[in-house]
Amino acid sequence: MRVRPRAPHTDRSRGAHAHGDRQVLASRRCACLRLRAFPRPWPGLRPVLEAHGRQRGPFLLEAVKSPEAPELAATMKEQIQNQLDHLKRVKDLKKRRRAQGEQARAELLSLTQMEREKIVWEFEQLYHSLKEHEYRLLARLEELDLAIYNSINGAITQFSCNISHLSGLIAQLEEKQQQPTRELLQDIGDTLSRAERIRIPEPWITPPDLQEKIHIFAQKCLFLTESLKQFTEKMQSDMEKIQELREAQLYSVDVTLDPDTAYPSLILSDNLRQVRYSYLQQDLPDNPERFNLFPCVLGSPCFIAGRHYWEVEVGDKAKWTIGVCEDSVCRKGGVTSAPQNGFWAVSLWYGKEYWALTSPMTALPLRTPLQRVGVFLDYDAGEVSFYNVTERCHTFTFSHATFCGPVRPYFSLSYSGGKSAAPLIICPMSGIDGFSGHVGDHSHSMETSP
């Protein structure tokens, strides 16, 4: 009898065996995990679990028959309840977060709606105001049209009558010129006399009162055109400056005063954010960092790169200087605050004169007094900019500055009586105008120890 050779293993059969082995290993792994998950040995169930790990039998059916099955079920129910409690807590928190998100969305949308209504209302008021001016100007033009018609129409009518009379006289003379001698000489004197009485008209002159009225109206129109142009340009510029100030405030840093640099007549607050002038000098060591002639004090930290912004409340003080200076500036004796000496600052003199301390100095014709000054240092670009924070507008910028080393906030003030006795205040920048943190280039600043 011939023996039929055994069929060789195919890839499919090898794959099936491998798949079965993987299932067995996975089943054993699950059984081990179940054993480790139980809080106690469960001796009655352990053989069932181990058997389940070795073979692919009906584990649940065998587990139910075990004596410990009720206790196991109670434990599993407790674990399920714990998970249910956890999931319900998470669900409640998710609902709460969703409600908070919906509330935040509603509040923000309410704010944008309020801004939308304000914008629409403001532009409607502007539109009505412009329409009123337009109506008045057009009405004035109609009055001018009527005045021109009434004033010149009489002269035009008179000229028309004169032209008709001249046409008749010319026709008579032409006819007379063609007559025979006897008829030509008859009444020739009277005919020529009538012609000689005709005078050459004076050059046309527009009535001066009309010229003056038209000139005044043209000036009004020119003023209106310039005003609208300036308004449009200012609105565009102000929007850009507001955006510019917002961008500067993104680089807000906390600045404090360095007591080691303060002139002895300057009194610093405990938190090193306020400084005021006193006639009585304090008994302070004349260390190298301290100003000994002018009432100046420097701020901390030092800046060696990057962008940095801070704000100073000047209030109603009559004399102050605010800006930045190089850390290496002369502290002893007299020194002029100017870029060539390492100072970039703006100043108020005698409560009314604002100056940028350029060389020579630049007058700042500000429309409103400065109450709160923003200082923005762009070290890498060589720029120091100043802002009127209250009016949210740009004041002055030092450009193309060359910094020879670390740069520090700079303050100077003096006493002139009255309201100016109030201190200069460095404003905390946390949460300013909606900003909740400081994102200035802290990696480019150096703390100075008092």
TrEMBL record:
Domain B30.2/SPRY residues, every copy: 235-429
Residue stretches of biased makeup (Basic and acidic residues): 8-21
SMART domains in alphabetical order: PRY (SM00589), SPRY (SM00449)
Region described as Disordered: spans on this chain: 1-21
SUPFAM superfamilies on file: Concanavalin A-like lectins/glucanases
Stored InterPro entries: B30.2/SPRY, B30.2/SPRY_sf, Butyrophylin_SPRY, ConA-like_dom_sf, PRY, SPRY/PRY_TRIM27, SPRY_dom, TRIM/RBCC
Name of the protein in its database record: Zinc finger protein RFP-like
Top-level taxonomy: Eukaryota, Metazoa, Chordata, Craniata, Vertebrata
